[in-house]
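Minutes, project check-in
Item: structure for the 278-residue chain
Input as provided by the requester:
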Amino acid sequence: MSTTTEATRVAAPRRPGPAALGLRQGRLELRQFLRSRESVVFTMLFPVVLILIFASIFKGEIGGGVRFTQYFVTGMIATGLMTVGFQSLAIQIPIERDRGVLKRLRGTPMPKWVYFAGKVIMVAVIGVAETVLLLAVAVLLFDLRLPDTGAKWLTFVWVAALGITACTLCGIAFSSLARSGRSAPSTVTPVALILQFISGVFFVFTDLPTWMQQVAAIFPLKWMCQGLRSVFLPASFGAQEPAGSYELGKVALVLTAWCVVGLVLCLRTFRWTTKRDG
């Protein structure tokens, strides 16, 4: 009897641990993302196209020895992270909800957190790849000056990490606003575009109207751009920021606050089924 029990125990398949489950879901999410040409082009190549266009048109300086390309790339990195974290998830999730994917996942033994872990892994991998691609294009074609100190690279890492975390959580929360998968792009895209225009992505932030700057200061994208400017622009350029400095402490505080707000909204508003399913 004991021999039979022992043999059965040996033959039973080993259940994957939490890390293995999360990584498996992450690989699945990445494969699904890469199979969608529209997602790849819009999320990864669109920011590169914008850099090529803007850097080719605006070749002069904006003051303080800073070329427009050097200023513009900070906004494009930030908006790239927002696109993959906020915009892509706020569109993908309603489509999956509409197709019944989330409802089926909810009915399986798979822990619910695995689904979100897969999304986070996908966002992180695509975000890193997109940022590397942007920097490579800007360095090779437009002589972008990369950060020259370890402290600046450290700032780059924590600003990007906090920013993409806030955008990911807000994207998951915002996904509950779309009434259907079909309406998700028209619900999310205008919000993303408005944030880009008022947050100093396409224009020098201090050239925008004061009221527009104040509205932008409510949202994470403005602070992501500001934190990245401290990495890629000279320290002296900080005097031209609205507060007279890069305010890195405030950047960290605001982005962390948005991470908390996004998490709370996710927990309170996320829906696994459509409203018609109940």
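Outcome recorded: The beta strands are 61-63, 66-67.
No further action items on this chain.
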